Amino acid sequence: MVDIIEKIHSSIRKAGYEYAKYYYEDWKETFKDDLKDQESYYYNSTDSLGHTFKEIFEEQIYEQTYHSYCSGTNDDFFEEFSIEGFSKEERDLVIDDYLYDELWDGICVFIEETYK
Description:
By secondary structure, the protein is mainly alpha-helical. The chain is built from seven helices and no strands. The chain is elongated, with a radius of gyration of 16 Å.
């Protein structure tokens, strides 16, 4: 049972990393209108190369993922972050409170690697 829980946690961390990577790469498309609007929080949120500033990225991805986490069930979480390969019974072994922590750990790895 411990092995399957660790596999699930590992998959959640990987999903967090991949989600952060996608969000980072898609920033300009996601906020294309806001990046031009001087009244927007996202105006000047990128450097001269078009990369999001770390603090703004961290804040936004935290808000985005936490709201996704809070807005559903355990099954919704696995679906939202495309975590596959586990039965419902296996997914139910993981305590809800730790799912977001594992996801955030994966996001943090991406942030650390990206903003060296």
